[in-house]
Design brief:
The complex is a heterodimer. By secondary structure, chain A is an alpha/beta fold. Chain A has helices at about 20-25, 45, 80-85, 100-110, 115-130, 155-165, 170-175, 175-185, and strands at about 5-15, 65, 90-95, 110-115, 135-140, 145, 150. In chain B, α6 (about 180-190) links the parallel β9 (about 165-170) and β10 (about 200-205). The relative contact order of chain B is 0.13. Classes of the chains: A alpha/beta, B alpha/beta. Chains A and B meet through α4, α7 and α8 of A and α2, α3, α5, α10 and α11 of B.
Chain lengths: ~200, ~475
């Protein structure tokens, strides 16, 4: 995973609530067997509308998505995170994220930042009024900064440490392999098995 | 202080607990399918890792599989590559796989319980958000992303922060004609698509205790649509009876030991939930969705709501956009909405009980002109059972299409899709924009409402059919 420390970029304000992962990346894109090449599928249905915010020329190269509440609901598809990253987004700001999407984002180094809905709206307004306005997402200070806005955000220390260092979860877990073996040794025999080994 | 069911199952699976770290949980059962596993196997290969516990891992094919001509090569080359990738990965790593055409193939969440692999007090994961289905057995079951799939393959564990618990207590009797699907749609409409976020739900109360295992699976399945990763129901005699004798059910002394453990899996009387919602079962009626998220639902007897009636600005905007997408007018009676397609199937309502309920309604009747009805068993075994009961004949005689097992029209990944602008009554779980095909419009319903809708051509409940029966003498 790529480490995330701090990022500054222009924003895309997405004033919709309940953006589900089927909107972020439609199911027919999920047939791919790689983690890349999803950028053209991002918000595919909405991008057919030339006025959709992502299609506006002034949003080209923007890297911070400022979304409505309940972003990433629905399917567990990690492809939604890959699509956002493949397109170039480094961070998503919303007042509420669906649990699975949030977990997936933090495992891939896409920083999902939870801020109060009023602050999210202030950032959307700022970016709507001035598409050149930049937003800084600072994970070291756990702070979002933009013109007229300084807001701290919460992220548990463990997730923050993994993101700042770009650490791979599996390697961390395998440092405790002895604990896994000890647990396995005491599992009851009645637990279900898919194979007889 | 006592513990909730979820807390008991959680505690029994903690491999490692340390200050400032998420708990490391052991995973008892890992279900795989073709869509969310290729990148995980790729990751294992790149790091030179193996699957740690092949005996706790099982795969099937469901999302991409066609429901017609399954003996022919899969027409869509991209789908074919994805299925071949799973087959190659299963062979390379030694994972048990039930491919298309196998008698144990089917929607992954129908297959696990059917084999007896889903058991009380287990942890079950799958790269699919509807893994919450398995919570109906008192299992802690939740959907995971592909990075976590790789993590479980490599370590048989997951680092997880412990969620809070919410009781959804449903007391009383469900009125005649009101099903588990109506109940869960009503719950989601009440608490919202984000209401369960951060919680494990426990459905309890006298109305839940009376439900069959299949109905309980329908309810737990849609926990994710309320934002909860998991939903659980305490195991009881209904659960034990369902599991006993299945291929992977414990036997002999193991059965006795398992049963003794399973009986401890109840929320203690003095346990406290972090939140509680109470629902009066008797107040419910057939429920359908009108919008583009599962929380946008109402009783079938209601009208399409007026967006202006929402106080919250973002809900109002969401309702406006939903009506525009769905091609509906505020104030229009839900019963007046005409459909082109009826879909009976999916991990929500593709089990034998669902097919029986739909068949009982269409039996001796005809599907309305201009309506296409697809009936898709949740698994090959469910299909065989239905055929042995003659349900396939009932559906075909009514004018419905009887298909092979798979996810089918629940999501637009296989040939079964809505065309742009087409409208469905669907027993599946998501009415998102484009979910059933680009531009398709979905109304989520129970199997009974689906069947009645197919006969009348507009959203309807079985109770609306009485006149039709009276007007149509036998044999005509």
């Amino acid at each position: 995973m790529e480490a995330f420390t701090t990022h500054t970029g222009r924003a895309v304000p997405l004033r919709r609530s309940n953006v589900d992962t089927d909107q972020i990346i439609p199911a027919h894109w999920l047939k791919k067997v790689t983690r890349d090449g999803f950028e053209d599928g991002l918000f595919e249905a909405w991008r057919k509308d030339e006025n959709f915010v992502l299609n506006r020329p002034e949003r080209k190269g923007a890297t911070v998505l400022v979304a409505g509440p309940d972003f990433g609901t629905g399917s567990s598809r990690e492809h939604a995170v890959w699509a956002l990253q493949n397109y170039g987004f480094k961070a998503v700001i919303s007042s509420r994220f669906a649990d699975i999407f949030r977990g997936n984002s933090l495992k891939n180094g896409l920083l999902t930042v939870v801020l109060d809905q009023k602050i999210v709206e202030a950032l959307q307004e700022l970016s709507e009024n001035d598409p050149e306005a930049e937003i800084t997402v600072d994970l070291e200070k756990r702070e979002v900064r933009a013109e007229g806005v300084t807001a701290s955000f919460e992220l548990d220390e463990n997730s923050r440490w993994r993101l700042l260092n770009g650490l791979d979860d599996i390697s961390i877990t395998l440092q405790n392999e002895a604990d896994i073996s000890a647990y396995e040794a005491k599992r009851p025999s009645y637990k279900p098995k898919t194979l007889q080994v | 202080m006592g513990r909730t069911l979820a807390e008991k199952v959680w505690d029994d699976h903690v491999v490692r607990r340390a200050e400032g770290e998420p708990d490391l949980l052991f995973i008892d059962l890992h279900l795989l399918h073709e869509v969310t596993s290729p990148q995980a196997f790729d990751g294992l290969r790149k790091s030179g890792r193996r699957v740690r516990r092949l005996d706790l891992t099982i795969a099937t094919e469901d999302h991409n599989t066609p429901t017609l001509d399954i003996d022919k090569p899969i027409a869509d080359p991209v789908s074919r590559i994805q299925l071949e990738t799973l087959r190659n990965n299963a062979a390379e790593f030694g994972v048990r796989l039930h491919p298309l055409g196998d008698v144990e193939q089917g929607v992954v969440h129908v297959v696990g319980p059917q084999l007896g692999l889903t058991q009380p007090g287990t942890t079950v994961v799958c790269g699919d958000s509807h893994t919450s289905t398995h919570g109906a057995f008192g299992a802690l079951a939740f959907g995971i992303g592909t990075s976590q799939v790789e993590h479980v393959l490599a370590t048989q564990t997951l680092p997880l922060a412990r969620p809070k618990t919410m009781a959804i207590t449903v007391e009383g009797e469900l009125p005649e004609g009101v099903t588990a699907k109506d109940l869960i749609l009503a719950i989601i409409a009440k608490i919202g698509t984000g209401g369960g976020q951060g919680y494990i739900l426990e459905y309890r109360g006298s109305a839940i205790e009376k439900l069959s295992m299949e109905a309980r699976m329908t309810i737990c399945n849609m926990s994710i649509e309320a934002g909860a990763r998991a939903g659980m129901i305490a195991p009881d005699e209904t659960t034990f009876e369902y599991i006993k004798g299945r291929a992977h059910a414990p036997e002999g002394e193991d059965w006795d030991a398992a049963l003794a453990y399973w009986k401890t899996l109840r929320t203690d009387d003095d346990a406290e939930f972090d939140a509680e919602v109470v629902i009066d079962a008797a107040s419910l009626s057939p429920f359908v969705t009108w919008g583009t998220n599962p929380g946008q639902g109402a009783p079938l007897s209601a009208d399409v709501p007026d967006p202006a009636s929402y106080e919250d600005a973002s809900e109002r905007l969401a309702a406006e956009k939903a009506l525009e997408y769905m091609g509906l007018e505020a104030g229009q009676p839900l019963r007046s909405i005409k459909v082109d397609t009826v879909f009976v199937g999916s991990c929500t309502n593709g089990r034998i009980e669902d097919l029986r309920a739909a068949a009982a309604i269409v039996e001796g009747r005809k599907i309305a002109d201009g309506v296409r009805m697809l009936v898709v068993p949740g698994s090959a075994r469910v299909g065989l059972q239905a055929v042995s009961e003659g349900l396939d004949v009932v559906f075909k005689e009514a004018g419905a299409e009887w298909r092979h097992a798979g996810c089918s029209m629940c999501l637009g990944m296989n040939p079964d899709q809505l065309a742009p602008g087409e409208r469905s009554a669907s027993t599946s779980n998501r009415n998102f924009e484009g979910r059933q095909g680009k531009g398709g419009r979905t109304h989520l319903v129970s199997p009974q409402v689906a069947a009645a809708t197919a006969v009348l051509g507009h959203l309807a409940s079985p109770a609306d059919l009485t006149d039709v029966t009276a007007a149509a003498p036998a044999g005509v």
